[in-house]
Amino acid sequence: MAESKVVGKANSVLQFMAGGFLESQALRKYIPTIVVLVVIILLYTANGYNMYGIEMKNKRLDKEVKELRAEFVATKQQQIKMTKYGSIQEIIKEKQLDLEEPKTPAFTISTDGRK
């Protein structure tokens, strides 16, 4: 009796693997629904992998933006330091340029001869 149960289970497993379960009329009417569900599951999985890739790219770009922002701040600070009046005077002295500070204010030349 126990042997027949084991043989019966073995036959049912073999029949399942051979596709015998697809022959039943009850299951045959649900095949379109099963196919649609399988397609939806595959699309959902593919979408998950796609979102994971986009998220990794987004994190990498955020890191790059932070690095570029820090570089910008450092460069801007250096520019501000170099354009200060005292720094300009030091650069002129270091390079031994023959430049002087103007003693008279600037004026505009116009076509009608007025200042």
Task: Report on this structure.
With 115 residues, the protein is mainly α. The protein has a domain at 18-92. Helices cover 72% and strands 0% of the residues. The longest helix has 52 residues, at 31-82. The model has no long low-confidence stretch (mean pLDDT 84).
Compact summary:
The chain is mostly helical. Helices cover 72% and strands 0% of the residues. It has a domain at 18-92.
Main attributes of the structure:
115 residues; mainly alpha; 4 helices
The overall pLDDT average reads 84
Q: Helix count, per DSSP?
A: 4
Secondary-structure content class: mainly alpha
Termini separation (Å)?
122 Å
Question: Topology of this structure?
Answer:
Blueprint: H1 2-18, H2 25-28, H3 31-82, H4 85-94
